[in-house]
């Protein structure tokens, strides 16, 4: 039997076409009203500062005295700033290393914790791994600084126990950036683990059952089922971790203060140095803008590349 | 019993409720943004007693240093509600402190009274942040008397720019050698003499150090490895400075600068009696007996009180060449140009510079009081090791720490390059050339400004 009954709202709309439009309009207004605080916040704390920093690029401004017109001086200075290029190279290495390690480790931990195990152990492991995420970066960095000190540091003491020479974790140009990376991965991989875990738990069990029936082992299931189906999650995780890694500031600031020399200084620290130590707000804005352009470009490239490897169910 | 619906519940739809909530929230936000209701005219008949004026002072010292001063202010300054807050040291010493201060002021924060040392004084005066105190002193005979008769001329003049007094000197520091008397005794060493040399010092280091890379390592000495003040403790004892005497040029290519740095680098890299200062906590290690000697000012006594560490004494820094000199820097209280109540702020400056506050400072193991009368009190000797008198005695041959207007730029340049010497990545000459190449253009900018 074919039912000819219409839903109540459709009957209502057919009887009075104006009412549906008014209702939709009202709902739209309610939506705008609720979104307004967030939009105002976005405008006041994100959009306006971006516009202000764009204007500052063309000014000499030290915060305390009136700004002076600088023309393109701050922009041309970018091309001759060898320190900035060196520091960008540090940021790039840290970003690539931290993004890679955070995502690989986050995924592996998520896969490990997604397997059958006693619930108590599961919660203990999840909480332990996620715990550093909840603690303030600066205070943990202070602890890591004590752990990694070359002379009388805990890590070097343990290394010494197995007969190895102490490692200059924080005082050598070769190690300082790597130490910052280790710290970042320890601190952040728990967050990515949670994201990957959510992604893994969203994969319907039916796919694994089908794969098992077809005789697929663990590695084949991981490669042909898990990885394709988790690719949207991985895409999200990579985008946010890459942007986050490029903006790293506090952990390096506390751990190595950017040293020795500029060996572990990252671009966010350089922007801070120019803005709030040298009080060169114009030049700091110019450097910030280069970071903005780089991040936008990288994100766009990721979105373009995602068409090749991200699979939606 | 079920609750009877009220008329509100009967007539209110979910949509109406949401709408009302939205309007209410918007109204509350607008109300919060509105200007506060004007206070009643203080002169009116019904006006209450005049409210105390809030004066906020900011300091780099632990704020509990001023707990007693705050309590005394209730009685001595009844018309002023005094507050003392901490200004962060930022990334470095006084350079980071000055930067934080300027950022807070630029951010519109109320700061009426400022503690700053000579290292940051010129930057703050260049930014027109400090009021000249000469008129206040001229109108206040007791304060003027203290400034000229109870404060050493060196300290007073350190806090002047172009012969104008910007700060009321409160305290100062030099750098002396702290040494562990128990270990000296254990090693059969006499206390170091007043006129000990770098060679004597090195021999002492070699004798007391026990560094094998194990858990029982004992380092002979550790130095800051950064900061103008910490490094000048060594430069001045070799009759040299990293910048020229007029503070307008780099002096890093002076061979004596290289000689000084080489001596210190050798302590780490060749003799292995000193740790790389990067990440090294000389406070904790000295108090734990893992470090025999360290260079510090009087403020390090505070750490010994906290750690209840008593087996130490003091001596001047070892000397190498030129006349005897000790690095010195003074800090004081000044009035901010942004203060809306400069008269009250001046009262707070005097209150915080009072001998009672200086005595509080002595008792917590802080810097050396600027007031000669307080340094001469028994309490000064009581709160310190046997050779405490050394601190104030050195004032007669104290030399001012180089403090150009761009100190906040100079110090990070030097620190960055020093670090590459201590870890052995660059020779002293390479690092000094790199530092000079970076520093001189900044000094040239300063000359053009």
Automatic annotation (TrEMBL), chain A:
InterPro entries: ABC_transporter_permease, MetI-like, MetI-like_sf. It holds the Pfam family BPD_transp_1. Its main location: membrane. Keywords: Cell membrane, Membrane, Transmembrane, Transmembrane helix, Transport. GO terms for biological process: transmembrane transport. Belongs to the binding-protein-dependent transport system permease family. PANTHER family: ABC TRANSPORTER PERMEASE PROTEIN, INNER MEMBRANE ABC TRANSPORTER PERMEASE PROTEIN YCJO. This is Sugar ABC transporter permease. It comes from Caldilineaceae bacterium SB0661_bin_32.
UniProtKB/TrEMBL annotation, chain B:
CDD domains: PBP2_TMBP_like. GO terms for biological process: transmembrane transport. The keyword Hydrolase does not apply. Residues 1-34 form the signal peptide. Gene3D superfamilies: Periplasmic binding protein-like II. Keywords: Signal, Transport. The keyword Transport applies. PANTHER family: ARABINOSE-BINDING PROTEIN-RELATED, DIACETYLCHITOBIOSE BINDING PROTEIN DASA. Belongs to the bacterial solute-binding protein 1 family. This is Sugar ABC transporter substrate-binding protein. The lineage of its organism: Bacteria, Bacillati, Chloroflexota, Caldilineae, Caldilineales.
């Amino acid at each position: 039997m074919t039912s000819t009954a219409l839903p109540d709202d459709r009957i209502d709309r057919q009887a009075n076409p104006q009412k549906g439009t008014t209702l939709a309009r009202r709902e739209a207004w309610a939506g705008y009203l609720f979104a307004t605080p967030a939009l105002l916040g976005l405008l006041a704390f994100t959009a306006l500062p971006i516009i202000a920093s764009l204007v500052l690029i063309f000014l000499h401004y030290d915060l305390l005295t009136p700004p002076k017109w600088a023309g393109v001086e701050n922009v041309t200075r970018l091309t001759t700033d060898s320190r900035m290029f060196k520091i960008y190279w540090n940021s790039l290495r840290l970003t690539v290393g931290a993004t890679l390690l955070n995502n690989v480790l986050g995924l592996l931990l998520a896969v490990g914790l997604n397997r059958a195990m006693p619930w108590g152990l599961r919660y203990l492991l999840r909480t332990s791994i996620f715990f550093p995420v909840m603690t303030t970066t600066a205070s943990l960095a202070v602890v890591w600084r004590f752990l990694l000190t070359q002379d009388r540091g805990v890590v070097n003491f343990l290394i010494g126990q197995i007969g190895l020479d102490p490692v200059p974790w924080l005082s050598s140009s070769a190690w300082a950036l790597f130490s910052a990376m280790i710290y970042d991965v320890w601190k952040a991989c728990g967050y990515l683990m949670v994201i990957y875990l959510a992604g893994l738990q969203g994969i319907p069990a039916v796919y694994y059952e089908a794969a098992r029936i077809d005789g697929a082992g663990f590695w084949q299931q991981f490669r042909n089922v898990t990885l394709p189906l988790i690719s949207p999650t991985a895409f999200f995780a990579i985008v946010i971790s890459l942007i986050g890694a490029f903006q790293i500031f506090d952990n390096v600031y506390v751990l190595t203060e950017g040293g020795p020399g500029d060996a572990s200084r990252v671009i966010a620290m350089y922007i801070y140095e120019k803005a709030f130590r040298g009080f060169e707000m114009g030049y700091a804005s110019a450097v910030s803008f280069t970071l903005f352009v780089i991040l936008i470009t990288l994100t766009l490239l990721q979105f373009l590349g995602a068409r090749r490897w991200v699979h939606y169910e | 019993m079920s609750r009877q619906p009220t008329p509100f519940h009967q007539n209110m739809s979910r949509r109406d409720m949401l709408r009302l909530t939205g309007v209410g929230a918007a109204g509350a936000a607008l109300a919060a943004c509105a200007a506060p209701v004007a206070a009643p005219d203080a002169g009116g008949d019904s006006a209450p007693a005049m409210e105390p004026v809030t004066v906020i002072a900011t300091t780099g010292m632990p704020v509990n240093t001023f707990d007693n001063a705050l309590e005394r202010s209730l009685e001595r300054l009844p018309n002023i509600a005094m507050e003392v807050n901490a200004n962060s040291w930022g990334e470095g010493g006084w350079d980071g402190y000055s930067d934080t201060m300027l950022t807070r002021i630029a951010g519109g924060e109320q700061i009426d009274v400022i503690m700053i040392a000579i290292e940051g004084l010129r930057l703050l005066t260049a930014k027109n942040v400090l009021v000249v105190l000469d008129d206040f002193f001229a109108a206040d005979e007791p304060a003027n008397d203290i400034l000229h008769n109870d404060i050493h001329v060196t300290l007073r003049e350190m806090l002047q720019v172009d012969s104008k007094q910007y700060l009321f000197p409160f305290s100062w520091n030099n750098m002396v050698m702290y040494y562990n008397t128990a270990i000296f005794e254990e090693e059969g060493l006499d206390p170091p003499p007043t006129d000990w040399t770098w060679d004597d010092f090195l021999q002492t280091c070699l004798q007391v150090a026990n560094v094998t890379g194990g858990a029982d390592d004992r380092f002979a000495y550790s130095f800051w490895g950064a900061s103008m003040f910490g490094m000048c403790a060594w430069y001045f004892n070799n009759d040299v400075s990293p910048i020229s005497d007029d503070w307008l040029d780099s002096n890093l290519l002076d061979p004596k600068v290289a000689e000084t740095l080489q001596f210190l680098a050798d302590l780490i890299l060749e003799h292995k009696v000193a740790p790389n200062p990067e990440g090294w906590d000389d406070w904790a290690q000295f108090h734990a007996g893992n470090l025999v000697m360290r260079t510090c000012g009087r403020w390090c006594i505070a750490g010994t009180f906290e750690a209840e560490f008593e087996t130490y004494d003091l001596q001047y820094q070892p000397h190498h060449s030129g006349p005897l000199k000790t690095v010195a820097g003074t800090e004081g209280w000044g009035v901010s140009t942004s203060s809306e109540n400069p008269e009250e702020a001046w009262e707070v400056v005097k209150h915080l510079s009072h001998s009672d506050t200086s005595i509080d400072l002595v008792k917590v193991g802080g810097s050396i009081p600027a007031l000669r009368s307080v340094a001469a009190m028994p309490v000064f000797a009581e709160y310190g090791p046997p050779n405490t008198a050394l601190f104030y005695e050195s004032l007669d041959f104290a030399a001012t720490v180089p403090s150009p207007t761009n100190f906040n730029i100079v110090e990070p340049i030097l620190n960055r390059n020093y670090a590459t010497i201590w870890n052995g990545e660059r020779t002293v000459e390479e690092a000094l050339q790199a530092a000079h190449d970076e520093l001189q253009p900044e000094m040239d900018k300063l000359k053009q400004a």
